[in-house]
Amino acid sequence: MKLVIDANIPAAEHCFGHFGTLTRVPGREINAAHLRDADALIVRSITQVNDQLLADIPVRFIGTCTIGTDHIDQAALAQRNIAFSSAPGCNAEAVVDYVLSSLLTLAERDGWALSERTVGIVGVGNVGRRLQARLTAMGVATLACDPPREEEGAEEGFHSLDALIERCDVLCLHTPLTREGPHATYQLLNAQRIEELAPGCVLLNAGRGDCVDGLALRSRLAGKGDISAILDVWEEEPDIDAGLCDLVSLATPHIAGHSLDGKLRGTWMIQQALARHCGRPSGLTFADICPPPALASLHLQHALPPEDALRLCMRAVYDVRRDHDALQRQTQHHGMRKGFDDCRANYPLRREFATLNVQLSGEAVALEGLLRGAGFNVIRKLSEQ
């Protein structure tokens, strides 16, 4: 079996080497010529799998090591009888880490407290559901909007997007990209809705870039300048709008889910799917490919203001400012397209909050609920239990 695999997929040899011969190709460069004699294709989100790529190739299995699937023409795969698998939820925890790190960084910079804000979550799937659970456990008020799930009747308590815009101080988008149908998300936040955002509102998009009208957002930021934006996803990636990039409070190159844990989990999930497709046992567990963290534990002994304690623990694991600064630096030196892609291709090692054991003793024991709610593994020192 010959497998063509995105060069940026970690642990590919460990996960797929026993299936056959691996050919590693940068994701944006994968084309039909690479697939002329391939049996399987394993990608991430930047490879567009469409009719042009699929024409006259022998591939029988395609997997994407990502949550999103809007880069995959699944109808075209079905017409060609090509098996397909994605990795839903693989990096959802990492995206939530990104959101919390970003909001607490902006709160510190601009002088407000997350605990005093109401956060609106648009899209309550793998990411949105986890974000709402963590914020609730941290004592932060949330409102959720998800029309498809509301119609299914599986959950209660949903609100309209317009209600979130009216009632929330922070608006977080975590929707897939759909261009048609009653719940299309293409430019879900259009010019009218961007204009309706209240002064002081924070807009965070870690879903899909095309869900926000970038020109309208740039106009609001450049004109009134009375809202803040945190963008990890953009229209026209990697040729993103440099003017908009300069105006947002935190700009990152589509890396919200780029933890090592999330990437490895996605690789492992597709390895499992390919093994099922081939009718052979996997024989590989996630623990087999996930290394221990460089920083395993942190000990807090004295009282800290709650959000200062959160920032201290979060930045021990992940600091979003590093990614914002890297994008600014790389795009200034190499231009937008190359700089954006270089940041992704050379992304530094990053772990998830859950890999850090936070030991508490003395007055710091009072922080247990907050830190556990934020996603850390909290351990009381024996003398405090």
Automatic annotation (TrEMBL):
Species the sequence originates in: Vreelandella glaciei
Binding residues for substrate: S45, T66
Pathway terms, separated by semicolons: Cofactor biosynthesis; pyridoxine 5'-phosphate biosynthesis; pyridoxine 5'-phosphate from D-erythrose 4-phosphate: step 2/5
EC id: 1.1.1.290
Alphabetized CDD domains for the sequence: ErythrP_dh
GO term, biological process aspect, one: pyridoxine biosynthetic process
Residues the record lists as binding NAD(+): D146, T175, D232, G257
Active site: R208, E237, H254 (proton donor)
Keyword field contains NAD: yes
Span of domain D-isomer specific 2-hydroxyacid dehydrogenase NAD-binding: 109-256
Complex formation: Homodimer.
Domain D-isomer specific 2-hydroxyacid dehydrogenase catalytic: 28-367
PROSITE patterns in the record: D_2_HYDROXYACID_DH_1 (PS00065)
Protein name per the record: Erythronate-4-phosphate dehydrogenase
Reactions this protein catalyses: 4-phospho-D-erythronate + NAD(+) = (R)-3-hydroxy-2-oxo-4-phosphooxybutanoate + NADH + H(+)
GO annotation, cellular component aspect: cytosol
Biological role stated in the UniProt entry: Catalyzes the oxidation of erythronate-4-phosphate to 3-hydroxy-2-oxo-4-phosphonooxybutanoate.
Family: Belongs to the D-isomer specific 2-hydroxyacid dehydrogenase family. PdxB subfamily.
Keywords: Cytoplasm, NAD, Oxidoreductase, Pyridoxine biosynthesis
PANTHER family (alphabetical): 2-HYDROXYACID DEHYDROGENASE YGL185C-RELATED, 2-HYDROXYACID DEHYDROGENASE-RELATED
GO terms for MF: 4-phosphoerythronate dehydrogenase activity; glyoxylate reductase (NADPH) activity; hydroxypyruvate reductase [NAD(P)H] activity; NAD binding
Compartments it resides in: Cytoplasm
